[in-house]
Structures are given as structure tokens and as C-alpha cells.
Amino acid sequence: MSNHAIEFNAVWKKFARGEKYDSLRDLIPSMARMVFKGKQQVELQEKEFWALRDVSFQIGRGDALGIIGPNGSGKSTALKLLSGILKPNRGNVHVQGRSSTLIELGAGFHPDLTGRENVYLNGTILGMKRAEIDKRFDEIVEFSELKDFLDTPVKRYSSGMHARLGFAVAAHVDPEVLIIDEVLSVGDYHFQEKCFAKMQEFVRCGATLVFVSHNLTAITTLCKNVLVLRRGVPIFQGDVSTGIQKYHSFYEEETKSAAIELLDVSLRSSSGDERDVFEPGEKVLFEIRLKALKALNHCHPGLQIHTSDGQLIFVTATSRLTNKKLTLAQGETVRLSFSLDLNIHGNVFLLGFTVTPEIEVPGEWLYYNPRLKRIIMTDSRKSQGFLHMNPSVEMYVESETRGAELAPNR
């Protein structure tokens, strides 16, 4: 018996652009064409494209693999192949053990059924018997925190409520393999933390996890290894830190010829001197001068701070700070100056800069470079830890004879 819980061997998967079947009238001729084409169907036809190209990986029992990459890189396709929703055009996929999948919000839910009814429906789809669902029903409801909405049709649920119920059912299948897509990003912070804790518990108990997310902090927390995909091609597989750096490098390459040209970038202290080493608690000015290569209308320049292994610890934008957006005519230049209190210490951090369009779409940028500038924070002799809280202290000696008085420094 293989020690691998998952084997993904030389897998290719293609789709047709614009492929859509609204009725049997459309679907039956398409299926007939596939039958008569036979083996030729593995080659690309007109309007087809490879979503995955020669992807291979193995995951040992009890291991956790993160899959990361830009939008459209094939991450969700890989998960659908693992879950059996799709079949590969070439290669083969093997998953050993009872699996539980959470890929799309509301997958396995019937919109006209209540939350209560959908617990039984979704649990059955995931392989649970009715007796199992009965036994775990109260735990599922408690985890979802949707007790007051159990008898409401799920078509009236918000996306976050869908995520809560879907994850609660999937988490109580007692899976040997857990397959999770981006869907948890819609939940509130409290529920996300609850789900991450549950996934960590699964891994500690020997379950195998495959996790797709743009939340690199979550990937770093849950996974020891990552698979990096780009346009359907495996670029890297190995340790999380190296994989995240590879992931960031895609955006560096792709934004050099974007609508924005950076002319100058600098870090300055409050006194104006340019440097990249700072003491905890100091103020820094992060200055960027850029040129518009085409007209920019109501855009959002933004600042990011990452740890050296890619964990995002801070993000903001000018539109959040000032309620103003950036508008430039083609050829115009602008200087932006972000002022920050460096309440961190003892590490190397990466300062990134982004510009998103007027209507923000997750994963779409006019400019994106998460490692534009490196900043080195020294250790503080006042305290230890990740944050610098600018601590101070006063001591008072209390006694019956003296009352309370400020203790002398010794």
C-alpha cells in the first residue's frame, strides 16, 4: 500500500473558451462530437486551452500542501480533479481514504431547502450515513453558529453563512483527506480563525490537507510545502518560504511594463536622511515617484508590509487614509509619501507598493510589487516580541509608614 494519500501523476486538463451548456440540445451534440473524435480529443482543438499542463505531485499521509499562484493558474481545477468533480484528459489522480471537499460556496446545497435539510443533503453527498449525520448534527450546528437560521432556506443566506454551513458539514465528516479552496476568505475574522484551528487539528490528527488560498499567512501557518502554479504549469514545489518568494516574483515581472513606471523609491527618517535600518518606534517616510504611461482615473495606490517569508502583516491605501484617489494624465508624474510608525522590531521586512484600478477586483493590479524595498528593524533593549508597544513603567513602594512613594531607580 502506498504511503501517499494523494498521487497526481502527469495530469493535463483542458477546457473550451466560452463552453456553456444551457440545455440538452447543446449538451448532446457536444458529447457526440467527443465520442466520435476519440483519442484525438486529448489534443487541443479550436478555442481550447490547457488549464493544467503536466502537473505531478504526491502528498504523504498527514501532510499539508498549499497550492498558490496568480488567478487563472489552475489551482481550483487541480482541486476539482482531486475531488472527482472533473476527470483529467491525460494522466491520473489517486486519492486514498475518505475525503471531504469545500471548493465552491453552496456546492451540494439546494437553495430552496433549509439549512437543516441541507446539512443532511450535503452530508450524504460527502459520504455520511443518516445515522452519522444524526449523531453529529448538534456539533455541526454549533460549529456553524447558525442555530437561529437552521429553518431558513439557504437561498436567503449570505456568502459568509454559506461558508459557515459548508465548512461545518465538511469538517465533521471525519475526513482522511481534506480539500479546501479559497471559500473561507468570505467568512468573518472570528470564523476564519475557527476554521484554521480546525484544519490544524485535522493535520495534527493525521489527516491530509490540500489548501488553496491567496492568504499567504494562512498557507504559511497550515502547510509545510507548497506547489506554485502559473498558467497551468508547475513552477516550484518545496518549502513554503521559497515558494512564496517565487509567487511574488511573478508580479515583479508582470508589472514592469504595466501602465505605471516607477522613477524613484526611497526610505527616509523623520529628519530626512535616507537609510534602510531603523530602531523600533521610529517614524519612516516611504516615498515613491511614478509616471503614468497611460491615463489613470481614480486609482488606489497602496502600501503593504510583508515579513521576509512573505506573510502580509499590514496593508492600506491612499483612498482609505485620505478618501482621495489618484488621477493622472498620460505622461504626468506624482510623488507619494507614506508616513509610518515602525512599531515592530528585530527582523527584516519587505515594503510593497500597489496601484489598483477604480473598481477594485481581488487579484487585479495596475502595478504590484510586494518587495519594492527592504527595511531592517533592530532589536529593542526595552522589550522582546514581534510588536513594539513603546513601553514605560513607574514603580511605587507601598508601606504602612511611608504610604506610597515613587521607588528610586536602582
Task: Explain briefly what this protein structure is.
The chain is an alpha/beta fold.
Give the tally of β-strands.
20
Give the termini separation.
Answer: 68 Å
Instruction: Provide the helix percentage.
Output: 25-40%
Backbone CA Rg: 26 Å
**Strand and helix order:** EHEEHEEHHHEHEHEEHEEEEEHEEEEEE
Principal-axes geometry comes out as globular
By DSSP (H or I, 4+ residues per run), the number of helices equals: 9
Q: How does this model look, in words?
A:
This protein has 410 residues and is an alpha/beta fold. 26% of the residues lie in helices and 35% in strands. The protein contains nine helices and 20 strands. The strands form five sheets. A six-stranded mixed beta sheet has the order 5-6-7-3-8-9, sandwiched between helices. Helix 3 (115-125) crosses helix 4 (130-144). The radius of gyration is 26 Å and the shape is globular. The termini are far apart. The mean pLDDT is 83.
Provide keyphrases for this structure.
410 residues, alpha/beta, six-stranded mixed beta sheet, 9 helices, 20 strands, globular
SSE layout and pairing:
Blueprint: E1 4-16, H1 24-37, E2 48-60, E3 64-68, H2 75-83, E4 90-95, E5 99-102, H3 115-125, H4 130-144, H5 159-171, E6 177-180, H6 189-204, E7 208-212, H7 216-222, E8 225-230, E9 233-239, H8 240-255, E10 260-269, E11 277-278, E12 283-292, E13 296-307, E14 312-317, H9 318-322, E15 326-328, E16 333-341, E17 347-356, E18 367-377, E19 396-399, E20 403-406
Parallel strand pairs: 3-7, 3-8, 5-6, 6-7, 11-18
Antiparallel strand pairs: 1-2, 1-4, 8-9, 10-12, 12-16, 13-14, 13-15, 13-17, 17-18, 19-20
Helix pairs in contact: 3-4, 3-5, 4-5
